[in-house]
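Request: Give me one sample?
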Amino acid sequence: MNRNIFSFLLVLAVPLVFAQEKLDFQKPSQEILQLADFERAPSVFTSPDKEFMIFAYRNTYKTLEDLSQEDMRLGGLRFNPKTHISSTITYLNNLKIQKLNSKDLQQVKNLPSNPQIGYLSFSPNEKMLSFTHTNSDTQQIELWYVDLNTAIAKKLATGLNAVTGRPYTWLNDNNRLLAYFLPQNVPAFIDKNNELPTGPIVSVATGQVSQTRTYQDLLSDPQDEENFKNAIRSELKMVNLNATTTPFLPTDLYVSESLSPDGNYFLIEKIVTPFSYVVPYSRFPRISNVYDLNAKLIKTLYEAPLDEIRPQGFSSTKKGMRSINWRADKAAEIIYAEALDEGDANKQVEYRDQIFTWAAPFDKPAVPLIKTKLRYGGIEWGNQDFAVLYESWYDTRMLRSTAFNPQNGKEIRVMSERNYQDSYSDPGNFYTQKNEFGRNVIYIKNNQAFLFGDGFTKDGQFPFIDQYNFNSNKTERLYTSNKKGKIESLITFIDEDKREVLTQVESPNEYPNYYRLNLKNKKSNSLTQFPNPFASIANVKKEIIHYKRNDGVDLSGILYLPANYNKNSGQKLPLLVWAYPTEYKDKSTAGQTTNNPDSFTYPYYGSFVYWVTKGYAVLDDASFPIIGEGDTEPNDSFIEQLLANGKAAIDALDARGIIDRERVAVGGHSYGAFMTANLLTHGDDFKCGIARSGAYNRTLTPFGFQSEQRNYWDNPDIYNTMSPFMNAHKMKKPMLIVHGEADNNPGTFTLQSERYFQALRNLGAPVRMVILPKESHGYAAKENILHLLWEQDQFLEECLKP
């Protein structure tokens, strides 16, 4: 045995012999720390009328103190029981405003002290920006707004309930908001540690077959049910801009509200019992009511039953009314869908869904509008002559868009029918503008609309703007971006008549900044000047490499090489591969790439890019397609394809003489961790690996996982073969297993890593497990992220450096 490998195994074996290792939080080496410990630039977004730019600031990371705030986990929600807001929310801490025609960046005045800003929303006239503030002193949610012309903020109300999301909505008069308030006498949450049970927990199966997946943070007993009611119970009140409030609807379990386009009605949904212990609150029974502005009940549209039972298949759905929304092109009409196949994708029918429209005051029956042959995916409304229907089917990855007459539902033509994973054939997205009701609809002038596209092709990325004619079904290319060494992302029109466009320009060492582009003269003016916070990797070598798998499938990845590396030196570098498997139904789409070598190099904990500063070659976002053509499913040959993907990447870089193929590590997060464990278990191409927040025992997700629609009993061999836990006796390579202590992702329970580690340890594998305190599926606290980078750095140095 190689002496270095032997020493490494001994180092990893020590904590296994003595159980846990006491360790304080560590920081990575200086090369990594100077990249990880940086000041984040603000996020930028424009008002819908393109008059103002909003600069929203936040801390680069959360802290452990932030994550240690009290939280409850009920019905699929995580929230702070003291403040009544999501415990996973990321707060903003400052707001600034700049007019698009000015360089003057204004600080918003009169913001609350120690701002914890969330849930921003423009008023209908786009002159005000509302937001919530979580007051850490009073432990209450406050409602604020800022006048965009004066840049002065004002508090409107306190005591809101934001457990289920944004707790307010604007009315069309620009003077009132409907908001969720905590009831006057808020019941205390039941402390389950001090409350004695009054009986056993009993669940009943009715004999119906269902394909319910594995969810996190569910209700589990009657105490949870009472606490869930206490959490979402709200009173609806009108809030005036003069900071007065008036009651609207009494206390109930409200979960959503939306105003009709004409501003005369509210669609309000509330949860009712019975609750469920197997699905989140989004599938609890609910009642959809319409009220006028005087809080008079106009119509109960639908009483949705508990949604626990669904047929197998990702294109299956629930029975009854679904996707209940206001039509954007009408004053007050509801649009909704109903399955014609009882929601069962396995049934053979001519039409899958019927779309209905229902006009207020709902004294006449709903009117059928149009049927779909695939599963309904939504409608983009335009003018009185044109709208676009979207439908899709998972098994074939088919996405169809159809132009139709919104007055009578008559189909005009199929505009596009393509594999939605086929990025090269993506026609782009319609440019939208507000109509007379203040709702975003497709901008149509003289029967023509605009399409903004990312422009991915086999030859590279060329963002574009097309003009589409609804009558002729033809497009005319207005602009193609082809900036050498840069990416010019086309965001939206600032002025469609003047052909002025808001763009974002970046390069590998130029931070993304915003510009005003004139399509007529091609002149571009800078709107922001954010500096590059990662100067130490500005000269790192970056390219997109292309190579083939042994069955001819095209693969690619982003290759990073150290700035001082000379390809002609003969030096062979250790290689780090970071990847995430993706399922496809055909080889052609699997071989496409949406990576661009001219994108800004943004190191973050979700990749290995940091280590290019320490002499490693890094292959980031390496292609790991899993393909199942025709009647075969991708996972039928998951392991074989996984190994072929890994070997192809190593072979390609070895052929260039860049890497030492005996010193290659692999890593991934979530399904990428699952990939990592399988590569180390079944193959010999990788010397070691880092697996973060993965699921390793697929029998714990027996009704499907990732893109697998079959359940365990349909094909137990697939589940067992793919599960690293079932093959733990074969895994003998060094592996670093990392997981968040409070993972909230369906299927990736922290228990998955704990049990897998226990199996590997007892079977003699050289593994190390790190549980990051308070973290969910993605990591947020600075202390944890820096320690994670230290763990990975120590692990890789021991494993790959001579």
Observations:
- The longest helix spans residues 782-800.
